Amino acid sequence: MGTFSFRTTAGDTRRARLTATWPEAVPEFGVAKGDPYPLSQAATIKFTAKFSEANDDSQAVVRKTNAPSGGITVSGNVAYIDFESADTSQFVNMTRPKRLVCDVQVTTPDGDLWTVAKGTWIIDPQTTRAS
């Protein structure tokens, strides 16, 4: 599976580029572990960011999808995730960086679920409190 890490400042807009790969070999599909995962063939794509993997999905800090206006677009095995200021507005007044754990999961047209990328996101405090 693809791995990533990125860092932003609270309140900033950002486009993250995440690469999706097969998390294991699937001989019946003719793929090896680490081969590019064709995101354009996924029925749904979900990005989730939480403080801990143990948190329930309802506690996610940020969620994005490939639904129209959901924030995820794809090209081949690359997902582009657009973050708006509102996605991190809850951190604007913090004084220490926050670390989030994230993943990208896809649902195939057949209903199978695959985690195709996993990583971390560090959100730094703002210095300028622009509005």
What's the CATH architecture?
A: Sandwich
Helical segment count: 0
Strand order, biggest sheet? 1-8-7-3-4
CATH topology: Immunoglobulin-like
Task: Describe it.
The chain is an all-beta fold and 131 residues long. It has a single domain (2-124), classed as Sandwich (Immunoglobulin-like), CATH 2.60.40.10. The protein is built from no helices and eight strands. It has strands at residues 2-9, 14-19, 44-50, 62-65, 72-75, 78-83, 98-107, 113-124. The strands form two sheets. A five-stranded mixed beta sheet has the order 1-8-7-3-4, with no helix packed on it. Strand 7 and strand 8 form a beta hairpin. It is elongated and about 55 Å long. It starts with a strand and ends in a 7-residue tail after the last strand. The mean pLDDT is 93.
